[in-house]
Write a structure and sequence with these properties.
Radius of gyration: 21 Å
Order of helices and strands: EHEEHEEHHEEHEEH
Helix content: 25-40%
Shape: elongated
Strand content: 35-45%
Number of helices: 6
CATH architecture of the largest domain: 2-Layer Sandwich
CATH topology of the largest domain: Alpha-Beta Plaits
CATH class of the largest domain: Alpha Beta
Low-confidence stretches: none
Structural class: alpha+beta
Largest sheet: 5 strands, antiparallel
Mean pLDDT: 87
Length: about 180
């Protein structure tokens, strides 16, 4: 099994997320993380989905997603084909932070930062790779100071020099112009 990142570009229509996740449900594939946001292209949204599966299955999943009417494009990537990042927040006990210097050393060692401190709790923020975020959680948990923990889904961009969806949209516009007999 390999952790694949699927990047889906779509128009912003209600119900599309349900259609996309249903593809995974039908194949009994668990989604590890899901992030949906506006992309750099007006009117186009970007879904970043991670799932553990094999190459044959991921190819079928991406093909099914691409067939959805409002999906512009869908592609899958391995970790070496993308740059990815996550963010995590850790709510820790302020009294433990103040009484045990090793807690602040762990935070600094993991390149995290304290963003809020009050009498009861402190908030630590960590940006980075999934493994680093998990490692900081494990180390803080061992100090028995974690009150809450939350992490974002993966955000990712390809390491390719071009964005496939831009080419697709340019081709689509050129075809539309040609069909309508519109010239420059």
């Amino acid at each position: 099994m390999t952790l694949y990142t699927i990047i889906v570009h779509s128009e912003n229509f209600a119900g599309l997320l349900n259609q996309v996740t249903a593809v995974f449900t039908r194949r009994q594939i668990n989604i590890e993380s899901l992030n949906v946001s506006a992309s750099s292209i007006p009117g186009v949204h970007k879904y970043t989905i991670t799932a553990w599966t094999d190459k044959d299955t991921i190819e079928k999943v991406v093909k099914q997603i691409t067939k959805k009417i409002d999906v512009l494009q869908a592609h899958y990537f391995t970790d070496d084909e993308i740059y990815q990042h996550e963010i995590a927040l850790y709510k820790i006990t302020t009294s433990v932070l103040e009484s045990r210097p090793e807690v602040s050393k762990i935070i600094r060692k993991r390149s995290a930062r304290i963003v809020e401190v009050n009498e009861v709790f402190s908030i630590v923020e960590k940006n980075g790779m999934s493994e680093d975020i998990t490692q900081l959680f494990e180390e803080l948990k061992a100090q028995e100071c974690v009150l809450q923990f939350v992490r974002s889904g993966r955000v990712a961009i390809t390491t390719s020099c071009f964005e496939r969806v831009n080419e697709y949209l340019a081709d689509r516009e050129a075809k539309y112009q040609k069909e309508k007999g519109i010239s420059d």
